[in-house]
Specification:
Blueprint: H1 7-11, E1 18-27, E2 36-43, E3 46-51, E4 58-63, E5 68-71, E6 73-75, H2 91-94, E7 98-103, H3 113-122, E8 128-131, E9 133-134, H4 135-143, H5 153-169, E10 173-177, H6 188-198, E11 204-208, H7 216-230, E12 234-236, H8 250-262, E13 267-271, E14 276-279, H9 293-302, E15 309-314, H10 325-332, H11 336-354, E16 360-365, H12 369-377, E17 381-383, H13 395-410, H14 416-421, H15 425-431, E18 447-450, E19 471-476, E20 479-483, E21 486-487
Parallel strand pairs: 1-4, 1-5, 6-7, 7-8, 9-10, 10-11, 11-12, 12-13, 13-17
Antiparallel strand pairs: 1-2, 2-3, 5-18, 14-16, 15-16, 18-19, 19-20, 20-21
The protein binds zinc ion.
């Protein structure tokens, strides 16, 4: 049946009741196109009109006065959801303009996802959340303590069934953290079998690859092969060249990835804008030979220098937190290599005695600026934070604003619209998120209003929780979640599932 609408409903925007109008905004729409000054009309959670709204009234009216309006940023590799019900306002994320986070990263997720999604729908938070299903989580529940080996086919079948359960609940796909326990002990075949399992669902593969230093090229081969053999989109998490002898190889890496793409493999990456990472101290030893001083010497020469490792958490001796390995070695009158092995020996002893894992972490500088800029500029690299709400790395609060302020405005690595595209439209494409990532009629009103001339990260290693400057107002699904430097206490975040609409 054809329905003829009266002409005034179609043509008269004056008759429309907007909930919010944002006037005179420099709209940077997320597509990479040049920004344009215009007005935006929002009805409920949706962008209803883009264009001249002079003479039209709304319940909430904001004069942007030329400030930049972008789609809310999508963080494709986030750890911000740790302890989320204690910080429902997600200050760390929204204060840098993030409105959607994708969790379940590095192989770690909430299992079963259905339970987590139920809790989230009972107690919503300020941002939208989507999740992968984590290989380490699943492997841990199947293999338990006996994980330092390949899984049997029987065990792989059990993992597959858990993965299918999560896929049916809306997981984006499989995530791995192959530098971490227990995933590091998996065979490439185990990973491939699991990746193939998500293909019929239209799932994807996201990986903290098996090595970001010593065995880097082999690890890249592995993820390329997953994309090829499972025929699913694959994404390299927080892409980096984290070893001195890999520095300067970003061109060869990108050539290799582009070649794979030409051959039909949908490989992409995300990246955070820092030359130092944050992880467990034990990740330095992929062969888990923690007492090998020769290995420790190699690490301190090739991967990170004694001055460039800072203990962010060390619950055994909290007085060492914030100090470099060089300083600690000096205090104990030991060589840095010996000190490194001893710090880990103390952790292992602590864990044995207390039968629980030790709270420890390091910040380590392993990357170089030229590579970061090149990798960040790759047409298939979107921005992520890898950050958490209470972590010791400033990326938790400053990753996106650092890209906008430092890399785009100051270093001119790319124009503002390109930076925004890498945080929005491109990220939505990489995650197959629909109706987000662009300022477009009919899209969800996830928006960030910021001062492009002033936006900058403020978080540092000393003050990792310092909020950014220049982010003025952030909307999630049409509602303000952050304004004037503070969360609003409104929780309009949605759960984003695979094949979302
Ligand atoms: Zn990771």
């Amino acid at each position: 049946m054809l329905v003829f609408l009266p002409a005034f409903i179609i043509f008269s925007k004056q008759k429309t009741e907007y909930d919010t109008i944002i006037r005179h905004a420099m709209v940077c729409d997320g597509s990479g196109n040049k920004p344009l000054i215009t007005d935006i009309g929002i009805i409920a959670d949706t962008i209803a009109f883009i264009g001249d709204l002079k003479g039209t009234a709304a319940k909430n009216e904001i004069d942007a006065n030329g400030l930049t309006l972008a789609p809310g940023f999508i963080d494709t590799h986030s750890h911000h959801a740790g302890g989320l019900f204690q910080h429902r306002d997600f200050l760390a994320a929204v204060s840098q303009g993030i409105t959607t986070i994708i969790i379940g990263q590095d192989g770690e997720s909430n299992f079963p996802l259905a339970t987590f999604f139920q809790q989230l729908s009972d107690t919503p938070v300020a941002v939208n959340i989507g999740s992968y299903s984590g290989h380490n989580t699943i492997r841990d529940s199947v293999l338990g303590k006996d994980f330092k080996r390949y899984a049997t086919q029987d065990e792989i079948e059990k993992m597959k069934s858990m993965l299918r359960q999560d896929m049916q609940s809306g997981a984006f796909g499989l995530s791995t953290g192959l530098e971490y326990d227990p995933g590091i002990y998996s065979s490439p075949d185990e990973v491939l079998q699991l990746a193939k399992e998500v293909a019929p669902y239209g799932g994807r593969y996201m990986s903290h690859i098996r090595s970001e230093d010593r065995y880097f090229w082999k690890a890249i081969d592995e993820i390329v092969n997953v994309g090829k053999a499972a025929q699913i989109p694959v994404q390299v998490s927080h892409i980096k060249l984290a070893m001195h002898n890999l520095w300067g190889k970003s061109d060869s890496l990108l050539t290799l990835l582009d070649k794979a793409r030409k051959n039909g493999i949908n490989i992409t990456s995300d990246i955070y804008p820092y030359a130092f990472w944050h992880s467990t101290i034990r990740v330095l030893f992929p062969d888990r030979n923690f007492s090998d001083e020769k290995e420790a010497e190699m690490i301190l020469k090739e991967i990170t220098l004694p001055d460039d490792i800072i203990l962010s958490r060390y619950e055994i001796q909290p007085e060492y937190e914030g100090k470099s390995l060089a300083t600690i070695a000096g205090l104990e009158k030991k060589t840095p290599a010996r000190m490194l092995t001893e710090l880990i020996a103390r952790i292992e002893k602590f864990e044995k005695e207390n039968k629980r894992s030790c709270d420890e972490g390091i910040l380590a500088t392993s990357m170089n600026e030229t590579d970061i800029k090149k990798l960040m500029s790759w047409s298939e690299a979107n921005i992520c934070s890898d950050g958490s709400a209470f972590g010791g790395h400033p990326r938790g609060y400053g990753a996106f604003t650092k890209v906008l302020g430092h890399y785009a405005r100051e270093e001119k690595v790319f124009p503002l619209q390109e930076a925004v595209h890498k945080m929005t439209g491109l990220s939505a494409e990489h995650m197959a998120i629909k109706r987000r990532g662009l300022i477009k009629k009919g899209y969800y009103a996830d928006l960030v209003l910021f001062d492009a001339a002033k936006v900058s990260d403020q978080a540092t290693v000393r003050e990792p929780q310092k909020i950014s400057e220049g982010i003025r107002i952030v909307w999630v699904n049409g509602e303000q979640v952050f304004k004037n430097g503070k969360p609003t206490g409104i929780y309009p975040g949605s759960i984003i599932k695979r094949n979302n609409k």
